[in-house]
Amino acid sequence: MTTQTVQSAGTGTMPRVNLMPPEIAQAARFRQVQVGLGAAVLAAVAVAGLLYVHEHSGVAAAKDELAAAQQTNASLQTKLASLNAVKETFAAVQARQAMLTTAMGSEVRWSFILNDLSFRMPSNVWLTNLSVSPTSTTAAPPAAPATLGSSAAPAAVVPIATITFSGIGFKHDDVAAWLDSMAKEKSFSDPTFGNSTESTVGTHPVVDFSSTVIVTSVAESGRYAAQTTAESATPTGTTP
Q1: Under 8 Å between Cβ of 100 and 224
Q2: What is the C-alpha to C-alpha distance for residues 52 and 21, in angstroms, rounded to an integer?
């Protein structure tokens, strides 16, 4: 292959004439296109490989997380099964608590009442007999204490028993003082004079008397009364 140059008249430049066959130039351009396409294919393959590795690692991590979650679920199911006995025990305790509330919901701690009464007795009065008779009216079970801000009405005060007293005083005024002291006891209602007769103890004049008083539901301790869930751990009423 030769290249011929012809000197142009008046310009002083030598024009270049390409005598290469066009097939060769096309083949060269085709090879360049092939190289570019090959590079693009290689780049695509590399990107696809990276994406595959990334997705494969993600799938493996997801499988590991699934296996861990299944293991945790199996462990929790085992623990839940072990708590069935606790649930049964709790239900049994609740049933017995309900029985205790039914049986002892209206408990009256008479030792406390008599102790309070001993402090209120006038100094010139002695009791010779005391008898307690439950009333025929069934007292409603004491309600749980109302929480602060609650609009619930307090439980109605109802009679639960009647106490009959027999005693001795120096004078009739002592009997009146005795009735007044019973009226000040918060769990008593309607102290009533029965009768009084004058007599002597040895050579000392005295007055034999009898009286009655109604014991109200205020006297109930409330230790076994039904309580709200929030207060179930704290018994109501007087502490032993």
Answers
A1: yes
A2: 47
Q: How confident is the model at residue 15 (pLDDT cuts 50, 70, 90)?
A: low
Spatial separation of the C-alpha atoms in residues 219 and 135, rounded to whole Å: 14
Whole-number pLDDT of residue 205 = 93
Question: Quick one: residue 185, left, alpha or beta (phi over 0 = left, psi -120 to 50 = alpha)?
Answer: beta
Cβ-based neighbours of 141, under 8 Å, separated by 6 or more = 101, 105, 106, 225, 226
CA distance linking residue 211 with residue 193, whole number of Å: 5
Going across the sheet that includes 204-216, the strands are 125-134, 159-169, 204-216, 188-201
Tokens of residue 109, six digits? 């701690």
Among 38, 2, 41, 34, residue whose Cα is nearest residue 18: 2
Look at residue 130 in the predicted model and tell me its pLDDT: 92
Structural Rg of the chain based on CA atoms: 53
Give the integer Cα–Cα distance in Å for 172 and 203. 18
Please write the tens of the pLDDT for every residue from 49-65: 777 777 777 777 777 78
Say if CB 188 and CB 216 are below 8 A apart: yes
Please return the burial class of 30, using the count of CB atoms within 10 Å of its CB with bins 0-12, 13-18 and 19+.
Answer: exposed
Nearest 5°: phi and psi at 160? -125, -20
Rounded-to-integer distance, Cα 54 and Cα 47, Å? 10
Q: What are 171's two structure tokens?
A: 């004078």
| Single-letter amino acid code for the residue at 222 | G
The number of residues in the chain equals 240
Kindly tell me if the per-residue pLDDT of 36 is higher than 90: no
Mean pLDDT of the chain: 76
pLDDT at 131: 93
